[in-house]
Hints:
- The chain is mainly alpha-helical and 144 residues long.
- It has two domains: 48 residues; 81 residues, Winged helix-like DNA-binding domain superfamily/Winged helix DNA-binding domain (Arc Repressor Mutant, subunit A, Orthogonal Bundle), CATH 1.10.10.10.
- It is built from six helices and three strands; from the N terminus they run H-H-H-E-H-H-E-E-H.
- The protein has a three-stranded antiparallel sheet with strand order 1-3-2.
- Strand 2 and strand 3 form a beta hairpin.
- The protein is globular.
- The chain starts with a helix and ends in an 8-residue tail after the last helix.
- InterPro entries: WH-like_DNA-bd_sf, WH_DNA-bd_sf.
- It comes from Thermothielavioides terrestris.
Amino acid sequence: xxxxxxxxxDDMADRLRIIAEGIRAGSVSLRxxxxxxxxxxxxxxxxxxxxxxxxxxxxxxAIRLSHIAALRLFHQWRAFEKIPPGEGSSxxxxxxxxxxxxxxxxxxxxxxxxVANHTLRAIGSDxxxxxxxxxxxxxxxTGR
Length: 144
């Protein structure tokens, strides 16, 4: 019996298999191959769309909106610049709140949204650090 959902899953699996084989063979590097990264992201997006109920998609949109709001606040406050860059560097939520002249509980909640979406990285229960992505946001016009 034909199933459009199963057929779509098979197509996605085939696309993923081709990318995986390219990575194994060394002909694909997700770090340097933008087209392959976008292909992989498109497959992931298609899978999310296929696997979720419309009610789930509303919840996912709410999560995305909270992430965007947190990004905008951090950008406006120049908060990414206050977090020390580099491997091994981190800052406590309280230290960051002090540098931003903000409430520790509010800064912590916003940071946790950014950690949950992999924009920032949690170090234990009270520290956070940059990710490769967030370091790009320190100076967004130059990417440095």
